Amino acid sequence: MKMLNIRSVGLSLSLEKGLPLGSGLGSSAASAAAAAVAVNELFGGKLDSRELVLAGLESEAKVSGYHADNIAPAIMGGFVLIRSYDPLELMRLEFPADKELLFVLVSPEFEAPTKKMRAALPLEIAMPHHVWNCSQAGALVASILGGDLAGLGKALSSDKIVEPKRAPLIPGMEAVKKAALEAGAFGCTISGAGPTAVAVVDGEERGEEVGKSMVEAFRREGNLESVAMVKRLDRVGARVVSSVPK
């Protein structure tokens, strides 16, 4: 509202949360994106997507830190590379329109506080691991732009810095990843800070099969119940789905 120079109006927002809290799915960014887009549309849609990301960043900073890795793609859709924060530089990575990409999201009944999961990360990184992860990041970008699902999945699954420290804190996670790959997923890793596991597939039917295997692995190896969802890559981002006529 400050960016729109609206100072004489009060607003009340009602939010229907479609994501589980503290799941590693960026639910706070989803709320921030929805609010920013709704308020912008209410006052004539004068702000562009980059400005909306800046507004969302302020909201995110209050609850989970000043980072755009959730809010930028939530508003812009698809894949977004954050090149820098000062100044804010965002690069939209176009996944080929003729290729299908779906995510299998399996959320266990387990609390993985972001603070605890961040504390598990190393303060210093060995040079070989740094070089390796940089290579995987490059491969990930190249695979997205080329629509190479096998390459995308391989890069996603090959982290040597974060996942090895966080996976042991989520009961059954290592078995879940193995189950996903054996069921035909191109790749699998922890979503955000966890505890949700995310796998990559190219079809809904395969996604359902992978999801079942992952749920069973959480139950068998982690003694945790979980819920699976299969979601298609959203290429558009946050938008108005319905409105009440004035």
What is the strand content?
5-15%
**CA gyration radius, whole angstroms:** 19 Å
The profile of the biggest β sheet is: 4 strands, antiparallel
- The SSE string, one letter per element, is HHHEEEHHHHHEEHE
Number of separate strands: 6
Q: Outline, from the CA principal axes?
A: globular
Helix content: 40-55%
List the helices and strands and how they pair.
Elements: H1 27-42, H2 49-63, H3 71-76, E1 79-85, E2 88-93, E3 102-108, H4 114-119, H5 127-146, H6 149-156, H7 163-166, H8 173-182, E4 187-190, E5 197-201, H9 204-222, E6 226-232
Antiparallel strand pairs: 1-2, 3-5, 3-6, 4-5
Helix pairs in contact: 1-2, 5-6, 8-9
Pathway: Amino-acid biosynthesis; L-threonine biosynthesis; L-threonine from L-aspartate: step 4/5
GO molecular function, one term: homoserine kinase activity
InterPro entries: GHMP_kinase_C_dom, GHMP_kinase_C_sf, GHMP_kinase_N_dom, GHMP_knse_ATP-bd_CS, Homoserine_kinase, Ribosomal_Su5_D2-typ_SF, Ribsml_uS5_D2-typ_fold_subgr
Short description:
The protein is of the alpha+beta class and 246 residues long.
Summarize the structure in words.
The chain has about 250 residues and is an alpha+beta fold. The chain contains nine helices and six strands. The protein has helices at about 25-40, 50-65, 70-75, 115-120, 125-145, 150-155, 165, 175-180, 205-220; strands at about 80-85, 90-95, 100-110, 185-190, 195-200, 225-230. The strands form two sheets. The protein has a four-stranded antiparallel sheet. Strands 1-2 form a two-stranded antiparallel ribbon. α1 (about 25-40) packs across α2 (about 50-65), α5 (about 125-145) runs antiparallel to α6 (about 150-155) and α8 packs antiparallel against α9 (about 205-220). The radius of gyration is 19 Å and the shape is globular. The two termini are about 20 Å apart. The model has no long low-confidence stretch (mean pLDDT about 95). Pathway: Amino-acid biosynthesis; L-threonine biosynthesis; L-threonine from L-aspartate: step 4/5. GO terms for molecular function: ATP binding; homoserine kinase activity. This is Homoserine kinase.
